[in-house]
Every structure is written in C-alpha cells, then in structure tokens.
Write the structure tokens for this entry.
Amino acid sequence: MNARTSMSVAGGAALTIYALFFASSYDQRILTLSGIYVILVLGYQFIFGHAGALSLAQGAFFGVGAYTTGILGSKFGADFLLTFPLSIVVAATLAALVSLPVLRLKTHYFALATLALSQLLLLVAINWEPVTGGANGLPGVPPVTILDWKLTRGLPLLTFVWAIVGMAMVIAHMQMRAGRVAAFTVMRETPLAAPSFGIDSGMLRLRAFLLSAAFGGAAGALFVHTNRVVSPETLGFGVMITCLTMTVVGGRFGILGAVIGALLLTHLPEWFRGFDEYYLVAVGILLLAAVVFAPEGIVALIAPAKAPHENDKPSLHTQSKRASATKPSRLALEAIDLAKSYGGVRALDGVTLSFGPGEIVGVIGPNGAGKTTLANVLTGLTPVDQGTIRLGGRDITNTPAHIIARMGLARTFQTPQLPNALTVRDLVETTQRAHGMSPAADEALDLLTIRSIADARCDTLPHGLRRQVEIARAIATNPGILVLDEPAAGLSPDEQDEIAAICISLSASGMAILLIDHNIEFLSPCVSRLICMEAGRVIADGASDETLTNPDVRNAYFGVISS
Amino acid sequence: MRTLPRLVITFATGMAAILSLVTTSHAEPLRVPVLVPITGFLSLEGTSQKNGAELALVGTDVSFSVIDTATAPEIAINAFERAVDASDVVSVIAPMLGTQMLALVPLADEFGIPLITVSGTAKITELGSPNVYRFFPGDAVVKAAQARYAVEELDASRPAIISQTTAYGQSGRAALEANLRRIGTPPVFQESMDVSVKDMLPVLLKVRDSGADALLLQLHSGPTALVIRHAKALGLDIPIIAGSAMHQPETAALLEPAELKGVCAESGSSPVSETSEEMQAFVDAYRRSFDREPDAFALGQYDGAQMILAAIAAGAQTADAVRSHLQTARHEGLAMTYKSDGKGNMAHSAVIICYDGTGRVPQIVKRYENLTGVLLD
C-alpha cells in the first residue's frame, strides 16, 4: 500500500466515522455538497488535468445537468431514475455537439470558446423564462425519488450522494488506467509530436471533453436535488471558478486530489464565516498559499507521486550488449512533386524522392532548405499544398499523422519530444499501445542498449540518451520507414557513432531510413544515398560521393564557388 | 508493514481534526439568526438589511449572529442549515435576493421557522408557504405606485421600461408592465440588461427613438446611477421614475445633485426624508452605529425585527408562536403599518420620492397608502 492509498483509506474511514457519528445536519449538508463537487472535479480532471486543455465549460455542463433535472423534476415531477441519466446524456450530447468546432481550437482560443458556450447558456437560462423560470429559476424541485422511495435530507442524502461519488471514482479510475494516462501525458506534454507516435490526439481530447461533461451533468443533477431549486447561478462563472480552484488546489490528477480540493474548498468558507465580511480575504490568503506552496496541488504535497529511482540517471555508456534487430514491415516511401508554402516562403518546391527497404538515405542542406518541412509533410504533421505521397503504394497525402504512424512510418524530432513525467518504459509502451500492440518495451530498449534506464523519468536523462530513447520509441512499433531529424545534433563523436551503428543495424533488418542531418562525417559512413536540398528544392540526389562533389551542392552547401 | 504506522498516524490526525470540529449545543436564549448578502453584488442592500436587524436586536435578550449568504442559493441554504443547527431559533432574518429566498422557503417549511425578509421578488409569497414574511412592499405595491405616479402625476402616456436581467429586474418589470397596462398606458419600449453593462447610451438612444415620454427603471444601485448620468449627458429630457435602488443614499452619492434634478423613485420608505421625531431618532441611532445613512431596506428590516421582538414580548417562545403572531397581528412600524395579507406580504404602502437638484436628500412627494386594502380588514 503506497502513501496515497494509505492516505485515502485513512481519510475515507475518518470521514465516514465523522459523517455517521459526529456530523450535525449542517455538517452533513456541507459533506453532501463536497461529494457533488468531487464528481464535478473528477470530470474536470479529464479535460483540464489529463488533456491539458483549459476548458471553461465545466460550469456550463454542471448547469445543463442542473436545469435538466430542475425542469423535469419541478414541472413534471419526473423520477430520479429518469432525470439523472438524462442530465448526464444532455450534458454529454451538448459537449458532443460543440466539440466539432471547439475541440479544434487550442490554448486560449479553446478557453474563450468554452467560455462563450457558458455565457450563451446563461443568457438562455435567464431569458427563456417560460421554461427556465428566468432569473428567479425554478423552485420546487423534488428530492431524490426512486420509484416510491423519497430520500430525505441529512444522512440518507449524504450516503446516497457519496455512493454515486464512489461510482464516479470507479469510472474515473477505469477510464484513466495506466496506459491511457500515459497517452494523455504524451499528448499534453508533446502535443505537436504526439500524432507522430500514433496517438489520436483528437479522439483523446473528445473522450476527455465528453467525460468531463457527463460528470458535470451528474454533479449538476445532484446539486439541484440537494438545493431543491435551480437558478442561473448554476450556470454562472462562479461554479466554473470554484471547480477550477478545487482542481488546482487539490490536484489536477487522481481521485485523492479531487476529494481534497472539493472537501477543502467547500468547507473553507464555512470555517471562516466568523470573520464576517472579511472571511473571503482569509479564504483567499489560504488559497494563495496553497497555490504558491503546492503548485501541483495539495495531494502532491501530502502524498507525492512515485519518484524515480536513484539509479535512474545512467550515462550513455553503461549499457549492456546490443540485441538483435527488430522485425520491421518492408515498406517504400515515394514523394512526388511536393510543394509547401508558408505565406510568401516556399518551404518545399517540387520535391520528388523515394526510398525503400534496407536503404539509408541522407538529407543535407543549409538552414532553411526545407529538410524539417520535408519530414513534417512525409509524416503528416504538416499538410502539403501540392504533390503526392505514397507509403507502401498507398496514397497517404495529407492523411492524419497518427494514421500514417500506425501504417508504419515512425520518426524522431530535431529536439527530442519526450514528456517529462513518464518513464522510458511508459513512453515506449504508450507508443506501442497507440499502434494496437501489446506493450513490450524491452526489445526496443535492448536494441538501443538502454534497458537499464527503463524506469527512469525522461526529464532525468542527458541529451544523448534522450536521442536514443526517441529512436527506441520510434522502432518499438516495428515501422517500415524511419525518419530521423538531426539525430546527431548536440552529440559527442562517440555518441554519433552509436547512433550511426544503430541506423546501420536497423537498415540491415529491412527498415528504410531517411536521415536528415548537417553532419557529413556522421552521414557519410552509413548512408547509401545522399540528397541535398536548397530553398525547398532537391538539387542533388545520388551516391554520397556524387552528391558531395556536385558543384551545385558545393556552391549552396559548402559555400565553394565553382569555376 | 512500513505503511502501517503512517496509516495509524494519518487516521489519528484525521480523527483529531474531526473531533475539533464537532460542535456541541448549549442552552441558549431565543435566537434570530441574520442571514444576509454582505458580499457580492447585493452587498450594499444586504448590509442595510444587516444594520437594520442589528439595530433592532442589539441590547435585547434575543441572541443573533450574522451569516453572509453572498449571492448563490446554496450558500444561503448552507447558512440556514448552520443557523438552525442551534436550538431555540424562533425566526430567521432572510436574504433579500429572490433566488435565495426561493431556495430557503422549502427548508423553512420543513423546519417550521418563519423567514423575515425585505425581498421584493413577487414569487416568494406566491408559493403558499406559511413561513415567508415580507417587510418591504412587494412588486405588486411599489410597481403600482411607480406606474401610477408616472401616468397620473406626470401625465406619461408613452412610458419606457429599462430593467435588469436579475430576479429583481425580471419580477419588477413584469409587475410594472402589468400595472401600466391596467391603467391603459402600455410601455412603448422595454429592454433588460445585465448588471455588468456599463455603457447605457445604446439603450437610452433606443428609448429616445421610441418616442417615450417617461422612463421607468427597475435596476440595481450602480446601473440606476449610470442610466441617470448618461441620460442627462444625452439630454434625454423626459421624467425618470426609478426603482427603489434610487432611494438609497449610496446610490444618490454616486451622482451630482444637478444630475439628480427631477429624478423620482418608488420606495417603501425614505428614512432620511421623514421628519417625525421617532424617525429622526432611528436615523440618528443608525448613523451613530454604522456611520452611514439608513435606507428603506434597513428600516423595513428594523421594523420586521421589531415585530419579532413584539411577538416574543407578547409571550411567543417558539417558532410556531412567532409565526402565529406574524400571521395575525398588526404591527405599527416606523415606516408603515404592517399586517399579513394571508400570504406573508406585510407591507402595503409605498412612497414616491423626488430630488430637487439642490442636494442628495429627496423629498417624499406622494404617499400611496394601503394599496392592497389589507389594512382595512
């Protein structure tokens, strides 16, 4: 039992004893509200914590659930068995409807769009008086009624709400099993690169958004049953701020964080009511202190996540014997007349190239020649304006990056894209899962001779090892094509030799490799062909010696003026 | 096994924290908790409520504590449950915010505790609850006075209404429109706006374009002042008859006397405008205690609290007995005579005040007594 689990068990037992034997009617009400907010925050953790998107719509989903139950309950006397699922469905449906335009947005645009949704719903609630009761809201919402069983306030309602909280915890736990948490981590920390590892970021964000809405709707429904009135305040920005504060203060991840945040933020104002009009100042000071001293949430302070082991910082040269090559699928890549412009800059201009199984093709060129753009369009990260790309004979032009990755085209990045919070093993296995493979990192780690760092967090690794981890992740899915973008940059000569040896080993097993780099000494021993680019065009494509002696190449790349 | 000590320590710490929170009840005098919004957008009015109640209750045998209800219904419910956790609660001074009252009424019925409020929201006395007692004239009274003054005294025939999108605004607008229609002068223009709106010129231009010959407001304090200021700046030369927010000294303080010239407002009362000895004593005591000017909300709440004290003085020692007194007794308050209409509406009179442009203290220009006829019974 780890610290977090023991803390949860002890806290849960203490709370149960408190609620059963010591809590007054008022205390039970505050605990009931806390439970409702736990559900709200658990939902918000999906989109804000795991997906890393600042949604300001969680209050809106809460309000939608509240109004669904409020209207059906007060106007039609509908049973809880009908209103509760409907509140969840309506909130999730709303999320699904708005997800198409909203989820395409990133960062502050996403936040603003979700805020606009909240404001729109608030206006509807205030102005659609015949249905919503306008600014007054709708009084007379019945208590939770299941068939003929009417739940009274106090302990019965408290027990019922926390039973639903328990179910919400189970669902949250099942949704956020280890593999999916890692996929969310990759998406959140390396959002631009994640699709190249086969991770369908769009689907993950959609899942998080829908789950957050469903949990929000459930919380809203219970809230209305607890207060017996629904009013525009349930859609107000105050609910959103409360939810955001609970999540930040408690912790963005995990059930314990949600419980701590909700319990604390619900109780804190009540504890300080004695300060009269100054109680908000006291609450504000405490919250500020919490954010300053526990930026990752109080849960991280009292029950920190598992720390990396002491031996998790090995050097590049402490590795064991290199294992045999992987078994890649045999694929060929063909690019025809590719063009890509950024405004007035022609990054790619009629690029045509092809390479197949067992080949290592080097790509050189001065800065701004279009090498990285080429890698991005081949792997689907950047759409092309013109041209055709075929992978294994199939047209993949402008196909989403995660699909291309799953078809067998893997890549690394000029700057290693490794999420800090994951271990090497988690990272590799997450990529394998995204490809529908059983997680088994060892073979790829052995091939790169880095199995000894499998349990090290990525943020503890030196630069050379980060490069190797990126390659291990790329080859762990047995790709047919591997695109390496400047893999030797920043490495020592010994480390460069290691990478070159790995490339040769991989190509020997049938993998086709596109090796983009500036370093001729690194490229020359291992490439079978060398392509030189300049100003978005291929100016030479042939054997290494031919390309290097090509006058245009010497002129463009080495600055030698040919006579 | 290493986790066992940690488990035990955590559990013990949790239990210690819990035990420290456990409250115990003691034998106490009769209690009248004061639940009012002293933070949030209604803090000005809520503070008046609090002050009025305090002025009445301080120095008596009744115990009271003030709990902030802010502006959300669930906070009001929390406050109520906290307040009635103690024994011997015979009545609760309840918040003036309509949505909070609507949330509290079912609880008051469940606990059998009468709520004393100055909320103007019409709906709170339409729920059939025997536990709501309103010591401020409701919309049915003050909106009738506002409409009648505009039409009968100022000869308005094309009135316009600007209201707030809050419960106060929506409830008052509906009553105002109904009263205007009843006397044959339906509004030629209506618009509701959010409390956050700061630029009033667009809506005032629409009022001007509608050809309105009087402007009736149902706005909170800040927006009332802004509309009046912008109307003067625009040169909108039509009478303005504001809602009760305008009678508050704090609202008048937001405007220059010249901007206030000709502006009128409805209210349950206007303590600073009255000259009677009793009222002057109240005003002086209020100023001494709180260093501010009393308004009609403070006076209404003062009168409400005084009626509870009168009930206790008459022998009421339980919530049921206090309720019974509120349902049947007639109370001569400072602002007016109070008597329940059977639904909990205790106030049936209103005044119209106007500013003459020389200062911020208005004159009472018209009294509308017993508009509901209840006091004749």
Residues 307-325 of chain A have pLDDT under 50 and may be disordered.
